[in-house]
Structures are given as C-alpha cells and as structure tokens.
FAD/NAD(P)-binding domain-containing protein (Penicillium canariense), 645 residues
Amino acid sequence: MVYTIPNLPCSLPVATIPRYTDLEAVSKDINHSLELLSGSHFTSNAIWRDSFAMTGTMRTFYGPHAIGSAWQQTSKATQPSAFKMQGGPKVVRMGPNAWVELEFTFETTGPPATTCSGMLSVVPGEDGEWKIWVMRTILEQLKGQGNVDILQQVTQGGHADGVEGADGVNSATGDNGTIEVNAVNVTSELNGANGISKVNGVHTGDTHFDCVIVGGGQAGLSTGGRLKALGVSYVILEKQAEVGDSWKSRYDSTKCKDRNSARHLILDLDTDAADSTYMSSKAHLPFERTFPASYNEYLTKNDLARGYQEWVAKYDVNVWLSTKLEKGKWIADREIWELEITKQGEPKSISASYIVFAVGAGSQVPVMPTYENREAFKGIILHSGEYHSAKGWAGKHGVVVGTANTGHDVAEDMLAANLASVTMIQRSKTYVLPAEHYRETQTRLYNNRIPTETADRLYFSGPLALGRLLGTRHLHAMARADPERFDALERVGFKLDRFGDIFAYLFERFGGHYMDVGASAKIAKGLIKIKSDALPVRYTEDGIQFDNGDHLRVDVIVFATGFVLNTKLLVANFFGAEVAAQIDDFWGTDEEGELKGAYKTCGHPAFWFHGGAIGQARYMARFIALQIKAKLLGTPLPLYEDTPR
C-alpha cells in the first residue's frame, strides 16, 4: 500500500530565537499582519489547516502561494475581522528547531456570522521580519445560537440543575465551579434512554426530526449532545438494548491498559477488530470529564458502558434503544429523508432533514481467509468479531491468525486460560509500538491539569503531517533507546517493524499494528509461539498445513484478520446504490492529509459520516452539529472547494 501521509510536504523550521526577544512586540506585529494577510506573511514551508472557520470544511494548504490565494478567496465569503491575540506568546525549542506559539480569536460576518479561534507558529525570517510557519483556524460558534460546547445537566424530572463537572472541573472553561447554563429552550419529557421520545428544538412529537443519528456509540452520543446544545431536534437510533452495549459485547478482557492517564487517554484505535481492546484517544464524552476518580484506574469495557449510561442520563440525551434502521430514502424534491425503523420490535416510520451515520469506520463485515479442505477440520473456528473469551479451552492447542492488537489480546487470553499451546501465525511484518512510548507523547496534553476541551483543540486542529513529523520523531528516538525489546522478538521469529509510522497505520491502513502492553515479553520468552516462515494453505482434521509443508496441530483457531472497511457498502444497504454513489469514501487520507468523508459534507447535501476513536468522536461532533445548525438557519457555511497551486 502506498501511503499519502509520509509524502506530505512538512518540515521543521531551523531558527534561532534569542532569550531577549521581545515576544510581545512579535505578537503585536503578527496581529497587524492578520488584518491584511497574504502569502508574503508565510515561510516557504508554511502550512495552513482550517477546521470549518474559513473553508466550511477541513482543508490543509501548503506553501505561501496556495495559502495566500486560499485565504483571499475564502475571505470574500466569510469576511474575517476583529483579530485579537489571546494569552501570552510561548517559545518552543527542539534542538536546532525553534518557533513562537501565538493564539488569537476573530469573527466572520458571513453569513453565517461566527466566532473563531486560531493558533500561529511563527519564526524570524531572513529579512528580519517574523513569518508564519503554521496557521490553524477553528470555527468556534455560530453567533447567537447557543454554545456547542456547553450543555446544561438535567435532573430525572427534566429540570435544569447547575452542578459541578464530574471531578469539579468545567472542562469547557477549565474553571472550578458550576457548569454554565446554555440559553436554549429544552423541552424534556421522559428519559429518551428508556426508548420514549423527547425532542428539543424546533419540532415536537416523535415522527420528524431535524437530524437522525444512526448509531449510539461514542460518535452518535457525542453528536446528539452537541445538537441538543444548539437546540436542534434529534434522535439517536441504537440497535442495542442499553447504552454502552456495543462496548460490553466486546471480548471479556477489553480494557484500557494505560496507567495514570486511563481516564483521559484510551491508548490506541484498534481498527483491526470490532471488539478492540484499545481505542486511540480520550475516553470522555463532551461537556465534562466522564470518568472521575471513582472509576477504575484501568477502564474496563463495563466501566466505559457505565460512564456512557451515566452521561446519557445526566444530559437527558434522546436515545431510542432496541431500535434498528431498516431502510432510508432521500426525497430530493422535499429535501427530506424518509426512514423505516423497528423500535422495540414494532415497525415505525420517521423522517429527518439530515442523517449522521455514526456506525464506525469499519468493523461490520469480517475478513475471513479461506483455506482448502475446511470441512475436514474437527476443531473450532472463530473470527475475532465472534470471540468473547478463551475460558473453556484449557488443554487445547490454540492458534491466532493475525498479529495486530486483537491477535495479541486473544493470544494472551489463551495463555491465561491454560491452553496446551498458543501460536500466532504472522503473515507480514507488524509494527510494535510500546504503550509507554505512545503514552509519553500523549500525556503532555491529556492529563489532570489541562481541560480535555483545550487538549482536543491543540491535538486535533494541527496539520496531520506536522503531528506525524513530531510524533514519529519522539517515538523512533525512544525505540532506538530500547533495542533489546525488539531484538528479543526477532530472535524468536517475530517479523518486526520497530520504526513504523503510527499515523499511516491509524489514518490510512486503519490498523495492523500492535500497541504493546505486555504480550511482546511473553512472545520473547516463548510462552506464545510465532509461526512466521510460511503461510497457511490447507486445513487437516487436526490442524493446519502450510505452504512449506509444515503442519501445526490445532484445536481452536481465532482469525484476528480485520474487517471490510468500506462503509459505503453499508450505506448502499440502508439507503440504496444511488445515495452510496454520491458520497465519498469514509477514512483514509486525501492529497492534503485530510480524512476522506469524515465529519464534513461528503457528497450528499444532507448526510454525514462520523466515527473513529473516542477523542475524534467527542471533538469532531461539534463541527457536525455546527454545520447542521447553520443549514437549518438557512445560512450554510460557505464551502471552499478550489485547489490553489
């Protein structure tokens, strides 16, 4: 596979910033530049990443000419003004690389009228003038339309209740105290989590909604909460019987294994399985820290489910449980979706102006390798999507096909369940990333000191190419300092990539790596065997035969071989081939380094994809909600689709 991310143009500035530099003067000069911004204000290797503030979507531009051209063109539609620096300048030094970080706010007249924020990384130019190396711009709010980042808690009776956040911190502001009351007219009837409709915003009743969200996982819940904060009528359709069941149905050992920051950071998006052990990002849902100190240090799948249930009750989020979407149809002349659903066993028809498809970026259709002579094998064969526990297999010979996250977890389960032998069949090199290495790069932002909302803006607003450059630099340095860990794996036959690109694995390959939380040591000690010198080709009555003639005795085989990741196939099943043909692919990166089809207009005027890790679900939901609200107001965000060169 050819990856886009490593080839994106991005380099760190080589600069000297003396200790005596007047940073306030730098800030003042840059602020003046923003009023008349052009390509001349940027370095030759500059990057601009916009999150819906100027382009109405997610865009990344490279080089001063492209940036200057895009800024001037988008400014005609958005009319930015009122630029104001916020906070104090900060110097970042990394060996020969240095720059000054600045934060600012601005407004747009539009329509729609908005408030926005931005971040700048500036360096001294050869001519003595300070220039912008990296610019980020972020849509914050639609003026006069409530706050997408603040939702008032309600009691069981539906009355507003201003209370402290879960750990005494209002993550929207970082201040101790009560949660700010959002001035949105909210009509609460009964708890929607019990399957009874309760609608806020424009519409009443339970047959038409401004937005229907398909899927009640972290992406669907986050979107529902954000829409409620903006006074948009919505319902979340969740096929499971309880909020959080999508987590509870995963295999028994599912948990977050990151000490010290487990409540903020769930380590890794394990995209090769629906029943993943790790999720890349932060476990909290919007508006609060969902997992206070009363939760286990290591969040289990049941902890996650319980936290989400409490969040739904606390914010009275409208979820219809045991409700499945059967079919949907877009009525173009009325600009409306007609949906056929089954709610608690009863057929029902509803309609919506907009759809958010929040069923994840994959993990629905398993990939199952086929080998000859399947009918001869007398043992057990499972895909990881069906797997829950190795209990009951004691004394059997177990095999796991696949060596990414789920494969390692299942192998550890088998070892703990006292199987007679445990062997992993490795078909290609695997990137092994020590969890403590990854944690060190993440806990600089996600910790008990920095509000989650602040960390999200810093983490998710930057250009992907820059995040990759800085992240791999740190990760590879730590890998070089710990060679024996990897040498030990290679000595027992594990085919290893010790300097992999985690960003390519997460955003393009969508998995295939292993976040090492302990299984590697068991492999190195020989407790878990590795078969990597041949590929399976044929079942036998009591095992598997390989293409080099080897035979392995097997009683139980678990295929941790991933899932079909084309979500468009699901769209076609629900909404028909015509709708599916209009929309973009979901996941993977485009030529700018932006995720395809995610969180933005994706080819159909009333359809959004939402999914990914928990942090992405939480943060990016705010932009989906703002886009939908702007459309409902009749002032959609101006969309910039040109590609300046």
Q: What stands out?
A: The first helix runs from residue 23 to 35.
